[in-house]
Amino acid sequence: MRGGRKNLKRATEEKHVTLQDGQSIMQVVSLRGSNLIEVMDSRGEKSLALFPAKFQKSMWIKRGNFIVVDESGKEKALESGSKVACLVSQVLFYEQVRALQKTPEWPEIFISRMVDDSNERTISQQVNELDESDDDGLPPLEANTNRMRPSELQADEDSESNSDTDD
């Protein structure tokens, strides 16, 4: 999968992703800026990864996304004192993640995290529904009197003109 931006679209259309030697699946923990992202591997360890310039303006990532990272030079980079330990080689999309979850290549830590996240979402949705039913004793919102309403003005003018013609 070498070769700049021209192969990015083809890589995103592939349904099945195969991991090569030195590649692993990681989850984005936070964005650090300047093409640096903090990722978590299958052991739960966090490290910095470089998001190459070839992905700029064509792919975006956010916290919680999954990526394929090339870790071939991780030990050398850490020994030399570099904080950046790996390089992003591919961004995984929804269909690719779903296909990988069914294979044994998918790390177990991410399966348990996804189940926990879905449980938290359902609990938070239930809490939000309860909060929405409560008005907390607040009065209803009033209309903003500082704005003119063109539709009401036209309706008022029409009623005035009709009353003038009736006279």
In whole angstroms, the N-to-C terminal distance is 83 Å
What is the string of helix and strand elements?
Answer: HEEEEHEHHH
Helix content: 25-40%
Structural class: alpha+beta
The stretches of 5 or more residues where confidence is low (pLDDT under 50) are none
- Mean pLDDT equals 76
Adjacency order of strands in the biggest sheet = 1-2-3-5-4
Largest sheet: 5 strands, mixed, barrel
Number of helices: 5
Query: What is the count of β-strands?
Result: 5
Strand content: 15-25%
- Quaternary organisation of the protein chains: single chain
Radius of gyration: 27 Å
3D shape: elongated
Protein described:
With 167 residues, this protein is of the alpha+beta class. The chain has helices at residues 8-13, 74-80, 94-101, 108-133, 150-166; strands spanning 23-33, 36-40, 46-50, 66-70, 84-91. It contains five helices and five strands, in the order H-E-E-E-E-H-E-H-H-H. Strands 1-2-3-5-4 form a five-stranded mixed barrel. The N and C termini lie far apart (83 Å).
Q: Which descriptors apply to this entry?
A:
single chain; 167 residues; alpha+beta
What is the element layout, followed by pairings?
Blueprint: H1 8-13, E1 23-33, E2 36-40, E3 46-50, E4 66-70, H2 74-80, E5 84-91, H3 94-101, H4 108-133, H5 150-166
Parallel strand pairs: 3-5
Antiparallel strand pairs: 1-2, 1-4, 2-3, 4-5
